[in-house]
Structures are given as C-alpha cells and as structure tokens.
Design a protein that fits this description.
single chain, 199 residues, 30% helix, alpha/beta
C-alpha cells in the first residue's frame, strides 16, 4: 500500500517509513507527487490539525494520506504551548531557540515538582473511500531550568526524560526515536493497522 505523507520533513519521513515499512506500506512525501498544498492549521487540537493536513493532501492527490501534528504541553502553563508549539509567542519569537527561551522565561520560579510536561503526537490516515485511522502517542517528562544537550530540535534541550536521565537533546536520534511521542503514536497506529487486515 502506498501512503502519501502530508509533510516534506525528512526526519519525519524517515521515522514514519522505518515503522510502516514493516507493515508493507510505502511512504512517499507529498512533493514527490507534485503536491505543495500547505493548509492553514487552524484547529484547536492536535487531532483537528492532523486531520486538516491529511485531508488537504488527500484531496490534492487522491491517494491514501498520513499526517501528524505534534507539540509540547506544560502543566504549569495550562497545557501551553500545545498546538501553538511551532509558533509560540508569535512573531516576536521566530526561531526554535527563541521559542525555547520564551518558554523558559514563562517557567521562571516554577518549583521542580510543578514542572511536569509531555510531548504529544496525533497521527491521522485518511483513505479516499472515507475510512480514517487515528493514533495518539505521549511521552511524559519535565521542563529543565536551562538547556542541556546538543542534539534534537525545538524544545528538546529543555525537555528532560527521567527514564533516560537526560534531555531529549542529550540522546542520539536513534535513542529518541525509540521512545518519542511520534514513535509511540506510530506504534499505536501500526497496531490498529494490523487489526484491520482489509486496509
């Protein structure tokens, strides 16, 4: 089965390909089909934004499409930045690094035991016949008071994963891919597909 990924992110493509290839699924990026739609992600949940992306690309190419939406949810900030993770703070914070330090500034003075957070991913697959598969993955941790580690991207340097004893940015890409929110969502997705033999 051929699946179109509603993204051109090489890292995302590699991670999704790795897991779904075990199910006999071939994943190709949307640009390979000449699809360059970039829908407005105006949903208020990860589920809504994931669906919006998958639907726009499926409508453009007519093939089964998979999309994901991810973000960081911080307990002390009422779940922020959430679906706004990639644009947290608005235009005043245009880069990943800017947004990371903005998050740290919002967390100043928050006690250790109240710095809980989680990364969340929701994956949506849409088929032209109307079928839909949705899978969610979460990875719990806490927010550090300063960045640690040189790998990863986004909020990885300030997201501490207790079981590994380091931040996401302190892990190799391989290590992170085994336990990340996206990996967990993909595993949940794969389990659903195995159950749906007719897909």
């Amino acid at each position: 089965m051929k699946l179109v990924l509603a993204s051109n992110n090489a890292h995302k493509l590699e991670e999704i390909r790795h897991i779904l290839s075990t199910l006999g699924m071939e994943v190709i990026p949307q640009k390979e089909l000449g699809v360059f739609v970039e829908p407005e992600e105006n949903g208020t949940t990860f589920e809504e934004n994931s669906y919006i992306k998958a639907k726009a690309v499926m409508d453009a190419c007519g093939l089964p499409t998979i999309a994901d939406d991810s973000g960081l949810m911080v307990d002390a900030l009422g779940g922020e930045p959430g679906v706004y993770s990639a644009r947290y703070g608005g235009e005043a914070y245009p880069t990943d690094k800017d947004r990371m330090y903005y998050l740290l500034s919002r967390m100043e003075g928050v006690e250790e035991e109240k710095r809980g957070a989680k990364f969340v991913t929701v994956i949506t697959m849409l088929l032209p016949d109307g079928r839909k598969v949705v899978a969610k993955g979460e990875c719990p941790g806490r927010i550090l008071t300063a960045p640690q580690g040189d790998n990863g991207f986004g909020y990885d340097p300030v997201f501490y994963y207790p079981e590994a004893g380091c931040s996401f940015a302190g892990m190799s890409g391989e290590e992170k891919n085994r336990i990340s929110h996206r990996a967990r969502a993909l595993q949940n997705f794969a389990e659903q597909i195995r159950k749906e033999k007719e897909l």
